[in-house]
Amino acid sequence: MRAQFVLSEIGVGLRRNLTMTFAVIVSVALSLALFGGALLMREQVSTMKDFWYDKVNVSIFLCNKNDAATSPKCAKGAVTAQQKQQIEADLKKMDVVDTVHRESAEEAYKHYREQYGDTPIASTITPDQMQESFRVKLDDPEKYKVVATAFAGRDGVQSVQDQRNILENLFSLMNGMNVAALFVMALMLVIALMLIVNTVRVSAFSRRRETGIMRLVGASSFYIQMPFIMEAAFAGLLGGLVASAMLLVGRYFLIDHGLALSEKMQLVNFIGWDAVVTKLPLVIAIGLLMPAMAAFIALRKYLKV
Known about the structure:
Blueprint: H1 3-16, H2 18-53, E1 58-62, H3 81-93, E2 97-103, H4 105-116, E3 133-138, H5 144-151, E4 157-162, H6 164-206, H7 208-216, H8 221-256, H9 261-264, H10 273-277, H11 280-299
Antiparallel strand pairs: 1-3, 1-4, 2-3
Helix pairs in contact: 1-8, 2-6, 2-8, 2-11, 6-8, 6-11, 8-11
């Protein structure tokens, strides 16, 4: 097979179907950009989970004198000094517990004032209304139920709360956005495949005279199909490169500059450039191979020798 002939046929095909080729490039680029974005979103959620789950605590809130009238779990009255000592000792004996910090009612009141001091209700709260608590750091945050089972319902304990629940709604929202991106990506991918198939068929129809002559002189099916497959692969490659550029530009403007989320949301551990760069070969490979395979399948019944 002469490479010069194949390359010349590719150029002819691209010029004849310039509009449809451009549509293929755009649709492939958008679908692959969404695909890469979905991969990065999933990695971002995983990174945030690892970062925050390592920092959250299990909080064991103790009964105070005001809870006796409002909470059935505190019907026996406020927690006693002996109960607090026993709870702390039992916590420190547990293998899953890393550290235990006891927060007094005064400390809880101080933290409350720091966070909500400007709200109208803050002026009505007094230190004796605040609950004492134990802030428990676990070796493995997934073992929250071990602590909850051991202390929920114990005398002097009002409730056991896992702070991960506060983050679950955020992660659920991000996972939902990821699923939506994958759905749109799949839709764009179908559109891109339809465009590729139609482009190849139009190109094959417009060059039916040339392919007919090639059949008569004994050219193989693969030799006849190769220019069409290479055209689709070239258009897909351009789409993959555009998608890669979109991912890099998106990372640059969303996190580092433009919106500068890394500065505005300093508590969020954003994914780095390495996470983006490692996805680019996969995006480009899919952009190259997907159109080539679609073209090969579409041509099998049109250009058989």
